[in-house]
Amino acid sequence: MKKNIGMMKPKCLVCKSSIGVIRDGIQWVCEICGSNWPVERGEMKTKKEILGAIIRERNRQDIKWGEQNHTPYEWLVILMEEVGEASKAALDALSPEDYLLYQKECIHVAAVAVAMIESLNRDGGNE
Ligand SMILES: [Mg+2]
Ligand SMILES: [Zn+2]
Prior knowledge:
Elements: E1 21-24, E2 27-30, E3 36-38, H1 47-65, H2 72-92, H3 99-120
Antiparallel strand pairs: 1-2, 2-3
The structure holds magnesium ion (MG) and zinc ion.
């Protein structure tokens, strides 16, 4: 029997709708009532789901800051800042829920690594 690796869509915690709930990175969003809540630890199992979360974070960064071009040294400092945030979240994690913040920071680390490669491959982004 084929194991179902798909994710169960939860019902909205507020309006109880089961049709309007979508995944947005590491949170669930109800399109009916607009409420959102974090995914549980273990709800993001497949590479496809994780890479999807990283791409959504990259899109969020583009909306927030626009195209970012930095030297490799500058990018490494930005990456290490995110690694520092992931380290702090790991140190501070005392309960399973706390690992949601650690997971979020890991996605930031991965998204910055993607941005570094994008920058390097743009004209003038690798001076
Ligand atoms: Mg961060
Ligand atoms: Zn709702």
